[in-house]
Structure formats: structure tokens, C-alpha cells
Amino acid sequence: MASRNIGPYRRLWRDWLLKYRGLIAVGVFAMLIGAITSAGYAKGIQLVMHGFETADPSVIWWGPLVILLLTSTKAACTYIFQTRTYTALVNAETDLQKAMHEKLVHADLARLQNESSTALATRFTADIMLVRTAVIQIFGGLSSVLIIVASVAVMLTIDWLITLTLVLVFSLAVLPVNRIGVRIHKVSRSTQDDLASMTGDVSEALSGIRMARTYQLEDYLINTAKGVFDRLLALKQRLIRLEAQLSPMMEALSGAAIAALLVIVAWRLSNGDATLADFMGLMTGFGVISQPARNLGKTFAAAKQGEAALDRVFEIIDLENTIIDAAGASIMAKVKGRISFQNVAFAYPDGKAALNGINLEIPAGKTVAFVGRSGAGKSTIFNLLPRLYDVTDGAILIDGVDIRAVSQVSLRQQIAMVGQDSILLTGSVGQNIAFGRVGAAQADIVAAAKSASADGFIMALPDGYDSQITSGGATFSGGEKQRLSIARAMLRDAPILLLDEPTSALDAESEAAIRAALARLSKGRTTLIIAHRLATIMDADMIVVLDQGKIAETGTHSELLENDGIYAELYRLQFGG
Distance between CA 30 and CA 87 in Å, rounded? Predict the structure, then answer.
């Protein structure tokens, strides 16, 4: 909590950059030497001009030598500064990305569903890029400040009155630059939020392009996206106008400083209080600090944009899960699979009720199907059992133990799941099956694949079980993906099995093969099934009909038909009376 009460850049330094302080220290030391070297140009030119004024013949050899020494030292320091500080920065950037990814992987499901995956992904790309650019600019700004301070110190030794006048002129920029920076921060935050929204809209449109073209929704998609693009354009244009105010402001102040310098130098030369060598030294010093002074405006703008991006990054890192292990949570040993729902209620964070007063006893080893209209609460029950959500009221018990009293890891080890969308991750086919049980032997992986009727098409692949899967398994058919998912569940060998419409998207031939594999998988396990196609659950030991978050009726297929309730109505709709 203390981390949230400090500024984003201070937090970035303390929590992420400080571990690379060795690299940064070397870079800053090189920066300091470089600043002193830059400031040395003013003194060097003054001494060279003084040598010319006094007709010193030795200036012919030592003058160029001084300039070459200053130039080469400056170049070496710039190289060391950039390699060290930028290396520290990209390391910290990677650490931030890892921390965000880890936080999202463990985040509550409800939090992940509040924002699209593509919008979340922009925090890893666009926001991190802005942070990197901002910190690079800040390092550059620090270098500019050191150059200005060192140069002003040298110029004070040449003529303190003129130098203080220049400092006074540039100090006039502090207040307006700060005001512009505050506005840049607000606009930049809005821009990043809209950029995330735009990314999500574009991804959604492209993922549904087949449906969109079939229904001739191209104009709708274009007009919807156009509004986001135009809003983003307006924010970018406003940001450009704000940033553009900084450079002319610094340019005008530079002109005013030169004018003041010429007036004061002319006056002091006429009085004999200054020499031409002093004038050339001051002009050189002013030339050295003018560009760093202009850069400070850009640095300030970039820092404000980076601050807004850091706010979005830290929003992810600061996520606090509500679904956590209780203090002293026990480890759940392998269960028999008796499940009890005791007056279970659940409402989403926005207050929408999904379940209310669910009381249900499921004996170990039995198959229970959940049916009902869309939104009746079937998926919510499946999310509550492995604690992807927590009940709002009541309790869920497995073998008489409240699932909130045991660790989430040990609870989820008791559960395997096969959904309608089989998820395949980047890696080999064997690895994807082995996700069911970490450290499984190859023989066990093959045995699970054979039980799922997957061994045949796996062995037909170029590298068999070592064949690589990319892009979510695009080269596999829906039936093949499901059989890999079933093999994963086979390997897990969990006593509780959740089947979420596992055959809903398959053709008749694939469905028959999958149903046979599921029958082998379900044997001896407590199996919960969500199904809209009633033909797949007629043999269930019990069918639970949900309606508006409540249990409307329970019984076997034949019993529910005799009751002539919701289930019988659904049956008639599917089978034509």
C-alpha cells in the first residue's frame, strides 16, 4: 500500500531501477564528466581567444589540442552513459512486463473480464514504450541540467553579471512549462485509454470478420471504429498543440537571452570591463547551454506522458485478488468427489445476481447434468467449484470440507475440465497433454492420448508428440483439439470432472468419437455436465434444471419428462414434440 502513496517515477526508481544502480551510477558519472567537458568549451574558447589577443604563438598547437581533448572525452562519456543507463532501463522494463504478466495470470477472473485481452496487451507494448521513451528523456534531461549547471559555473568565472542575467531570463519559463505539463499528463492518460479501446475494437472486428461479411456489417464496423479513431485523433492533435507550445517558448527565451547578452556585453566592452575573449567565451557557453535548455521542454512533456503510462502499468501491478487462501488453509488430499451446495448465492461485482438459494447434493462418482436457458447460472456454478469466483453467500463442500478452507492449488488438483473451446498453448503436442499433470512420464502421456483416441492423428504428425503447436492449434480440427483436451484431463486423473458443452461445436462423426472418449474419461468420477443438446445427457444420473439463478427441478430424464416442466418444454423444442 505504501507504494501507491509515492510518485510514479519515485516508485519506478525504488522498486525497479534501484537494483541496477551500479549500471546507472557508472552512466551518471560519465554524464557528469561529459557535462564538465561540455562546460569546458566556454573556458577553452576564452583562453584560445585570449592567446590570439596577446599574440601568444603557442596557442597554435595547444588550442586545437584542447578542443580535440574536450571533443573526444565528450564522445566517450556519451557512449558510456547511453550503454549503461539504457541497459539498466531495458532490464527494468522487462521486469515490469514480467510482473504485469504474473499479476494478470493470477488475477481474479472477474477482473480479467472487465477489460479485453487486447486492451490489456497495450499495457505491455504502448504503455511500456512510453515509459521507456520518458525515462530516456529524463536521463537526457538530467544530462542537460548538469551541462547547464556546469556551463553556468564556468561562465560565472568569466562574467558573473551577464551570466546571472541569462539565468534570470530562462527562469521565466518555469511556471508556463509546468502548467502545460499538467495538461499534457491528463491528455496523455486519455490517449492511452482510448488507444487500448481502439486496439480492442480492431481485434474484435477482425476476429469476427466472417460473421460481419456474411451479415454485411462492414459499414457498421467501419463507423464504430471511425468514432474511436476520430476521438483518438482529436486527443493526439491536442497533445501536439500542447507540446508545440514548449519549443517556441524556449526559442523566444533563447532570443531574449541573446539580445540581453549583446546589450550587456556592448555596454561592458565600451566601459572596458570585458574583453573580446570574454565575449567569445560567454557566447560559446551560451551556445553550449541553449540546446540543453530547449531539450528541457521536450523532456518535461515526455515525462508527463510517461507518468500517465506508468499509472496504467502500476494499476495492473497493484491489483489485489479477493479470491485468496484463508489463513492456515489446509491441503486437500485426493477426494472421493461428493459435492454439496448449501444455500449458495452469487452476485457479480456490479451487483447482478447470478445464483440464489442453490441447495444440491451430488454423490461421489455420479454424473449430473445442468440445463436451462442462457443466463440461468450454469457457467457460474462451474466457475464457483474451482473458486474462479467465490460464493456471495452459502458454501460449497467437497467430501464435507468447505472449499474456502483449503488451498486453491490443492482444490484445483481435484478437478479436470473439458470445455467447448479446447485451449492449446504454444509448445509441443506432448507438452499440451502434459499440462494435465506436471512431470508426467512420456508413457503416461501416450496412454492418455490413446484413451482419448488421439494417438492416431498425433503419430501422423511430422514429429509425433514433439510436433510444435502454434497460433492456438490452428492446424488441428475441432474434434482433434477436443481429443487433446480430453487426453489432458485423462492424464490429470482428477476425481471431479467438469464438461462444459464439450461436443457443441462438432460434426456428428467427431461427436460420436468424442462422446466415446468422454464416457471413458467420466467412468468412476463425479462428473458435472453443461449441455444445451439434451441428447448428450439423457443417461445422466441426475439432471438439474436452472432458471433465473435457482433450481427449478431435478430428476432423471424420464422423471423430468413426466413432470412436464421446463425440461419437458426444452425437450419438445429440440425434438419437435
Answer: 15
Q: Residue 149 — very low, low, confident or very high, per pLDDT cuts 50/70/90?
A: confident
Check: CB of residue 405 under 8 Å from CB of residue 567: no
Is residue 524 packed enough to be buried (19+ CB in 10 Å), middle (13-18) or exposed (0-12)? exposed
- Closest residue by Cα to residue 277 from 154, 152, 158: 158
Domain 423-493 has CATH 2.60.120.10: no
The three grid cell numbers given for residue 437, joined into one nine-digit string: 499433470
Instruction: Dump pLDDT digits (tens) for 134-143.
Output: 888 888 888 8
Helix ranges (DSSP H) in 208-275: 209-214, 218-270
Whether 59 shows a pLDDT value over 80: the answer reads no
Question: What's the CATH class of domain 2-317?
Answer: mainly alpha
Side by side, the strands of the sheet bearing 496-500 are 415-419, 496-500, 526-530, 367-372, 542-547, 550-555
Cell of 251: 526559442
Which pTM was predicted? 0.70
Q: List pLDDT tens digits, range 461-473.
A: 888 999 888 765 5
Question: Can you give the residue ranges of every domain in the chain?
Answer: 2-317, 423-493
Strand 542-547 to 550-555 pairing: antiparallel
